[in-house]
Amino acid sequence: MLKRERLHKIVEMVNTQGIITVNEIINKLDVSDMTIRRDLDELDKAGKIVRIHGGAQSMSYSINQELSHSEKQELQIEEKRKIVQLASTYINDGDTIFLGPGTTIELLAHFLINKRIRIVTNNYPAFEILKQSDSVNIILTGGDFRKNTGALVGPITNANLKRINFTKSFISANGIHNESICTYNIEEGEAQEIALNNSRTKYLLLDNKKLNKDDFYVFYNLHDIDYLITDHSINKDVKIHYEQYVNIIVT
Questions:
Q1: Looking at domain 3-59, does it have CATH number 1.10.760.10?
Q2: Which of 2, 67, 194, 212 has the smallest CB count inside 10 Å?
Q3: Taking the domains of the chain in order of start, what are their residue ranges?
């Protein structure tokens, strides 16, 4: 099988299944593990698929099916780590900050443990990290627990967030398309919208794979975000496009 034909078949398989493992591709195409991994890396760089641990995900997968918390933890790990490390430098002692749901914000929590700040969050995994801190005043919003993402949502969450003002909010999203910031779940989007509206400064943390990508529910406008922090792999033309909407900080 020619390489061009093989790459086409891989993209077709990924788009059909949404997520596929390296072993599944090997079994169907009868090629080596090393060859498939090289092919997946090439297709990822070309923007045809999203490379994940042990396999690949289609570009449109999240709009049809929400990834689990563990699946999201495997995506763009190094890019996310650099983004949150940079984001943490914008948090000062004495700040009252909101941390939204998602695995990127969960990673950010690790860099905040020694800061003298007050944190309000509906991100339960982030709360589990921060509760070990002796210097952080951590407040969990309460609300209905979404097992798939570890987020607290619903009327209780929203009512509590409406009463709190923040110096800064740090959120992530499933994607941005032009000026629309998108997520999969309406209730998660509603909670983030409330917190952002009550914040002096608003930060959006997204890896490059979430740019030019939409999802089910639009919960905020990029014009109303102060800073987008993303990784250095952002395409130059994409960066120029989004600079018309928001200030961009690159790792």
A1: no
A2: 2
A3: 3-59, 72-250
DSSP track, the chain? --HHHHHHHHHHHHHHHSEEEHHHHHHHHT--HHHHHHHHHHHHHTTSSEEETTEEE-TTHHHHSPPPHHHHHTSSHHHHHHHHHHHHTT--TT-EEEE-SSHHHHHHHHTTTTS--EEEESBHHHHHHHTT-SS-EEEE---EEETTTTEEESHHHHHHHHT--EEEEEE--SEEETTEEEES-HHHHHHHHHHHHTEEEEEEE--GGGBT---SEEEEEGGG-SEEEE-TT--HHHHHHHTTTSEEEE-
Tokens of 152: 């607290």
Q: What span, in angstroms and rounded, lies between the C-alpha atoms of 184 and 32?
A: 36
pLDDT in tens, the chain (251 residues): 789 899 999 998 888 877 788 998 999 899 999 999 999 999 988 888 878 767 887 776 555 555 555 555 545 688 999 999 999 999 999 999 999 999 999 999 999 999 999 999 999 999 999 999 999 999 999 999 999 899 999 999 999 999 999 999 999 999 998 899 999 999 999 999 999 999 999 999 999 888 888 888 999 999 999 999 999 989 888 899 899 999 999 99
